[in-house]
Amino acid sequence: MDSMNDETRLNDIAKRLGARAADRLDVQATAQKVVERLRAGEQPARRPSWVQPAWLRIAAALVLLVGGVFLVQRVSTNEQDLGHQGVAAHMVADDLAGLTTAQLQEVLRGFDELMDSTVSPEDSTETDYDALDAQQLRTVLRSLEG
Amino acid sequence: MTLPERVGVGATAEPLQDTALIAAWRRGDEQAAAELVGRHARALARFLAASGAPESDLDDLVQDTFIRAFRSVDRFRGQCQFRTWLLTIGGNVLKDFGRRASRRKVMPLDEGVRDNRGDPHDNAVANEAEARLATGLQGLPRMQREVFLLRAQQGHEYEEIAAALGTTPGAARVHYHHAVRRLKAWIQ
User: Fold this and answer.
1) What is the CATH number of the domain that holds B89?
2) What's the rounded Cα separation, in Å, for the pair A6 and B136?
3) Which of A44, A82, B20, B135 gets the highest tally of CB atoms within 10 A of its CB?
4) Which of B:64-93 have CB within 8 Å of A?
5) Tens-digit pLDDT profile for residues B7-36
């Protein structure tokens, strides 16, 4: 049997397939049942609308969008903070270069007073800056910058 | 307004097109829905049975398909015939049914699905071929099975099949030929 005949035979069998079961269907009764179910407002068995694939895709896109915005904000905030720190460090270094020994001692005493107000008494230490020269004072100040 | 009032009760009344019945159903005409069921229920039942639906569940599956179709009729935009669209919905309904009844790995073809009219010997040979084809169809990917049945059983053109299944006529042709090749091998 050639290929075309095979296909024709296949199609003939396919046309017969299910014919008997379909003939046994009571179409009028089926139509009546369908109308009654429609009248009763019966919804077909399906997933709730909020878990339809389209909604899932939209929800996933929103999560990605919100997460992305949050991430970008965090990164840009960190960069700004780092930028401020960089600017502050640069300004302190510039200031130190132009200060005299007396001014450096004054800055360090002010810094100590500031630290004393935040550190517990037992942690605080007396420091004598008068014994230090300008270079040493700058070194101490730079070390305090961290 | 009911269907008989619109078409006029009388022997000369022309049967309404499916599109007119669909429009009537959209306006809430239940008689139009019943008319559509009457027109397409048997074709749908043949398609479902050939796709593997057990005869004991056939009536329910036909009803479910029509309910789903009527509830989502706004999605039908005349891209293909109503019957072709309905059959693709039937395929989805059957797929959901198969998931629910997943205990049955392969749904056996009921005796009633085969056509037993005519000579008993010929029937026996034909039944065997039908049973083999039915089993072969169960082994096909869903797209190939549906394209094959829409083409071979329902007699639709590739353009119509493609529009209903959301593919191209060329792809539908390829699916059909793959199905035929595998089914031939299965039957022989």
Assistant:
1) 1.10.1740.10
2) 15
3) A44
4) 64, 66-68, 70-71
5) 433 344 566 799 999 999 999 899 999 999
